[in-house]
Design a protein that fits this description.
The complex is a heterodimer of chains A (301) and B (299). Chain A is mainly α. Helix content of chain A is 79%, strand content 0%. The model of chain A has no long low-confidence stretch (mean pLDDT 91). The mean pLDDT of chain B is 90. Classes of the chains: A mainly alpha (301), B mainly alpha (299). The interface between A and B is large, with 84 and 85 residues.
């Protein structure tokens, strides 16, 4: 009897250690990301000073005359993501507001999963669609549009991040306490006024969080922009020209046979580190805003 | 007299305001419907284009041939076998760690700074771009752990990538088990672990599996991390051990899309249809599990 008890007690302790280790894996993953990016990036910045990396206006590490200015890649990334957000933000918030405030429960339950299907489509398929459907279609209206360009993947990317923005915002708007709507309606406001002047402002921090998380996803998207935006680092804001994003550059180098440990190899970690830091800022800001929204309304009950 | 006119004017202004209000509401609702309509159209256009291009290319030869320089002789044998191989291995690695972490956070952890750190960390990891996991896998698994560009390295990479989603889904499944079950077991003298193992976990397993399958279907459609760790684009053999090189459907499709010949584009479309079919199958299983085992608790 005593032996059994001791065994159970021992088991209990061992199990906690095992599960703690599992939870620690997630922390270790973050550390591993920092180490893997950091080690090679340090090697890179030993050869190329940070100031050149940040201020030079050309990115040609694979050419004979090597230039290491990340600006064109950052510019391309933000151009495509920016086009996507111009479309995805208004559409996402409109859809979210409609589904949360106006649609019947049946319509809501029917439409939300359909929108979320868009999030489940593989990004290579989005790339296929952008390159072989959207670009030829746009070229009929804009003859100067190049075969690879920022516009077409930007538009398609909008629909890829739309589920993130619409679905997260919808959850947030739906979670705004009923008392806020009732207070506004009791003061004589119409439903539309209530929606736009009471509910949406109350949900603002949560909606901003959804937008930030969507933006961060747009910046990190890889295969779509690799397929449809081109492989030319181009410091331009003209959406009709081919560009290269940070992610597309990493793919380009990964597909070639650059020897491990060379300066060219290290460039993808320097670019990856920049990408990681940019998305980290957006993610943390988004998480902070969402937390604030949840805390505000937990206090309201 | 003046007062009456004043009142009348006010009334008319109120009616005008109300009318404007109704119009604004109509405009907003039409905008919402237009947005939804555009979204549905895009979804249908994507699927329409894909099936129009690729459906006729799918046949037995396509499914059982290796890639080739000649588009009509090429197939996706190594790609779909690789996909299933990587997916199975990913699940085997990610599931125990994900469930373990979820059990720790839901059932054992006390609310302290470490728990908060782990939670914040998991939320942040869910937002890290897939390609960053690829760089992590390239450095750690491929180079430092000397796994090479193998199925195992790919599976480890995808496992780390899907862990945050699996943990969040598993936690929700555990949280959905009512506390009365735990209290009943504890009151009868079971230890915490016995309670979790014999009572909480069995009830949460359908939810955990649903979440895991959905996380895996996300991961397997993503080509970026596997491209980064160096998965090949031309594989004319099947991986025999976890340390063999491999390719997967999205990478094969990417390779064909990026070639100029339209015949290869058709192959890419066909490969993507097969990938979609696989994802659809996985999602159906997840939905079936959810509906079949979903418990309605009466407390």
């Amino acid at each position: 009897m005593k032996g059994t008890y001791r065994w159970v007690h021992w088991q209990e302790r061992a199990v906690i250690v095992v599960f703690f280790t599992c939870a620690f894996v997630s922390v270790a993953t973050t550390l591993a990301i920092a180490i893997s990016l950091g080690v090679e990036a340090i090697g890179f910045f030993r050869e190329v000073p940070l100031i050149r990396f940040l201020t030079e206006r050309e990115w040609t590490p694979l050419f004979a005359i090597k230039k290491f200015g990340i600006l064109p890649l950052v510019c391309g990334t933000f151009l495509v993501a920016g086009i996507a957000m111009i479309i995805a933000i208004p559409m996402g918030i409109t859809i979210a507001t409609y589904l949360a405030e106006y649609a019947s429960e049946r319509v809501r339950r029917l439409l939300k999963p359909v929108i979320e299907v868009l999030a489940g489509i593989p990004s290579v398929l989005y790339g296929y669609f952008a390159l072989l459907f959207v670009t030829p279609l746009l070229q009929k209206f804009i003859p100067t549009l190049s075969g690879f360009n920022a516009l077409s993947p930007g538009i398609v990317l909008a629909f890829m991040v739309l589920p993130t923005i619409a679905s997260l915002s919808e959850d947030i708007i739906y979670a705004v306490p009923q008392s806020i709507r009732e207070a506004s309606l009791a003061l004589g406001a119409t439903k539309l006024q209530t929606t736009f002047r009471a509910v949406l402002p109350a949900a603002a921090s949560g909606i901003n969080a959804a937008i930030l998380l969507g933006f961060s996803r747009a910046i990190g998207e890889t295969m779509l922009v690799t397929i449809a935006a081109g492989q030319i680092p181009n410091l331009t804001i003209n959406p009709l020209e081919p560009i290269q994003t940070m992610t597309a550059y990493i793919v380009q180098v990964s597909l070639g046979d650059v020897p491990h440990g060379s300066l060219e190899y290290q460039t993808i970690f320097a670019v990856g580190l920049s990408l990681f830091l940019i998305t980290l800022v957006f993610n943390l800001l988004g998480l902070f805003l969402r937390e604030r929204f949840i805390r505000t309304f937990q206090q309201l009950g | 007299m003046e007062v009456a006119i004043e009142a009348r004017l006010q009334q008319e202004a109120a009616i005008r305001r109300r009318k404007r209000e109704i119009w604004m509401e109509r405009i907003f609702l039409s905008l919402a419907w237009v947005a939804l309509l555009i979204t549905m159209t895009v979804l249908l256009a994507i699927l329409g284009k894909l099936f129009a291009d690729g459906l006729t290319r799918i046949n037995w030869q396509f499914l059982t041939s290796f890639p080739s320089r000649r588009p009509e002789a090429a197939g996706i044998f190594s790609a779909w076998v690789g996909t299933i191989y990587v997916m199975g291995l990913t699940a085997a690695i990610a599931l125990p760690f994900g469930v373990g972490a979820a059990i720790y956070l839901e059932e054992f952890a006390s609310r302290n700074w470490f728990t908060r750190l782990v939670e914040l960390n998991i939320n942040n990891l869910a937002g890290v771009p897939a390609i960053i996991y690829g760089l992590l896998g390239l450095q750690f698994f491929v180079r430092w752990f000397k796994m090479g560009e193998s199925v195992l390295a790919g599976a480890c990479t995808l496992a780390l990538m899907s862990l945050p989603v699996i943990i969040v889904a598993s936690r929700e499944a555990l949280r959905a088990v009512p506390n009365s079950i735990r209290e009943a077991a504890l009151a009868l003298g079971a230890t915490k672990w016995q309670t979790v193992r014999d009572h909480v976990l069995p009830l949460a397993i359908p939810g955990i599996l649903t979440g895991t399958i959905l996380a895996l279907s996300r991961a397997i459609g993503e080509a970026a991390p596997l491209v980064t760790i160096g998965a090949l684009t031309f594989v004319a053999f099947l991986p025999k051990s976890p340390l063999d090189p491999f390719t997967v459907l999205p990478i094969q499709a990417y390779n064909w899309v990026s070639r100029p010949q339209p015949e290869f584009h058709r192959n890419a479309a066909a490969a993507l249809i097969v990938l979609l079919a696989l994802l659809l199958l996985m999602n159906s299983i997840a939905i079936y599990l959810r509906n079949r085992y979903q418990q309605r608790w009466r407390i």
